[in-house]
Amino acid sequence: MAIPMGRRRGDGQRRASFDLRRTSFGFALVALIVAGGGVTLRAAWHSAVRHPFLAALVVLPLLAGAYLVLRRRRRARRVAEAVTEAAYGIVEVGLAELDAAEAARAEARLAPPEPTGHPVDYSQLDPYAFEEAVAELCRRDGCADAEVVGGAGDLGADVVGTTPDGRRLVVQCKRYGPENRAGSQDLQRFGGTCYAVHAADVALVVSTGGFTEPALDYAEQCAILCYGPEELAAWSEGGAPPPWEALAPAERPDAGVGGL
């Protein structure tokens, strides 16, 4: 005879029954805590009414402790705010000093040398200041629109302007030391762009280190003016006319000559 067997409860049902008991027990415990807390507060209130002095002895230290905690927090907050403001002030002063130093360096780098009555040692200038000094010489002698355009991708043109008689001036500046002269490769690179790319009527290379003989030979073939330290000093001190006056308009070569 088959004996009917009850279906076993699954794990999920057992867990559900267990959780229900735990939940019920939790609610009961919370209810007891709330009820106990209410009874305790009620008893404390009645005790305070009956014995106000004792209640004051208990409450005053609690209030004093809370006040000290709040005061310490406020003091800590004030200290933190003061430290933060001081740090911001130090950072602002530092940034201002950095900006002033950078502006001074930029001004010193770009400002042309002031006339002192003595020959200027252009080799002591950094490359940027040297380019600006050459541009200032051009402006002084009539190229009012002369400006520095040198930089990445300038294709050999550091200073450009218009001469008083309307010709386009293109200048390459080589701030070299006395032992480093501009060579024929420097002149060839400039010759390949000064006429064909920059449409120069007057092409000028200024080198504080002078030029090699092959460079001077190439420059003569392409009608490129070369100013070394002596020519630059004479031009700067007014002992020689501006470079463009040494090249008549008829001497400008064709655009294709620069690519030799």
TrEMBL record:
InterPro entries named in the record: Restrct_endonuc-II-like, Restrct_endonuc_IV_Mrr, tRNA_endonuc-like_dom_sf, Type_IV_Methyl-Rstrct_Enzyme
The Restriction endonuclease type IV Mrr domain, residue ranges: 124-222
Region annotation (Disordered) ranges: 237-260
Key word Iron present: no
GO MF annotation: an example: endonuclease activity
Record's keyword terms, sorted: Endonuclease, Hydrolase, Membrane, Nuclease, Transmembrane, Transmembrane helix
Keyword Membrane annotated: yes
Transmembrane regions listed in the UniProt entry: 24-45, 51-70
Protein name, per record: Restriction endonuclease
